[in-house]
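batch job 7 of whatever, protein = CBS domain-containing protein
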Amino acid sequence: MSATAVLMSTSARLRDRRVHLERRATASRAVRGSLVSLAGLIGCPAENQTGEEVGRVVDVVARLYGSDPYPPVTGLVIRIGRRRTFLTADAVEKVHAKGVTLSTARVDLREYERRPGEVLLARDVLDHQLVDVDGVQVTRAADLYLAPLVDRVVLVGVDVSLPTLLRRLGPRRWQVRPTPERVLDWQAVAPFGQDATDGPAEVRLRASRSALHRLRPADLADLLEDLGRGERQQLLGWLEPGQAADALEEMEPPELESLLREAPLEHAARLVDEMEPDEAVDALRDLNSEEREQLLDRMPRGEAAELRGLLAHREGTAGGAMTTLVVTVRREQTVAEVRGELAARAEHRSEIDAVAVVDGDGRLIRDIALFDLAVADDTASVGDLADWLAQFGRPVTVGADARIAEVAQLLVAARVSSLLVVDESGRPLGRILADDVLDSLLPERGRLHFRRILQ
């Protein structure tokens, strides 16, 4: 892609994003007019009240992971001779494009030592990876913008544009110029940098979770694939196991394989255990036998046994691609009762598109699509509904050893989105979904994930 195309694409995304930032600080004309470029500020003079240079700005310290929507600047690190010393925010009268003006003549000349909870914006954030929540992408901070807000200086925005990187390579007079038309409001990003603060973990988690909780699993999967090894393990640590597992199910197989190998064994086992059985089996197949057993040994016994049973089926067969999540009901149950059971399994909505009616011995009588349940009368029995559907022919099923190509042909012929996998006696073993069939037939094109498309 040409540089012009990149610039045009970036500008278009930023224009579209402005509609989401109307209520944020950077939407204020007054704030945008008072922005100070962090990249331009580094190296600028720190002057006392009489205009004499005391030292040079080395970095800006902020409370990045507190509860404030815009991190407040808590002080500056300035170089005086060969020393790096710390000035509290109270000692700074004004921060402007050409430097800072101090409000006191007293300066503590002790060498600066970083304290728990302190984040150095130039060292820890500038040029580091960030997650743009509005744009749902991983990017890098080309510049950070400070501005006075109420009675203090705060971090209000981040610039991720290519022109800003070029500006920083230009003459000094260019470096100090902020470009407010390209600023992303700080509330739209979540920083990554596990070494950015020595503060307690719960302080870091509060701000980052609040920015990321509204992302969908497919969006989180895209972010995980774009992040580096350390950053994506940090992101996984911020997510609840179920939310993380949903994201893992949407990842490309090579990326998921790498992620599981990178993660601590206990954490990786917990994530795989939270995944849907068919997705978990796909992930485990990509690992070698030793890695696979290490994860299975760390899972609850029942879940591990279920996955081992699925792994025993050959890859490329219905048994190897099915999920064991099958909702079975009895003839005497009412439609209303079945709907109640489905409501209790709402977290598995993407894996359930029908219910299996079974007899007293567990053998299949009928596979009823959710649409037929939705339009049926609440008081009707499932048995009556199954008998009425019998006029359209016998339920289409496959054996566990059926090849995926055969399953695909049956899916097309029956015009359904899933098929039950049954044993020799006609008892349901699992269900194979259309997206699993496509994933098996088109591995070279990656996982298509119907759920991502539908979302």
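notes: The radius of gyration is 29 Å.
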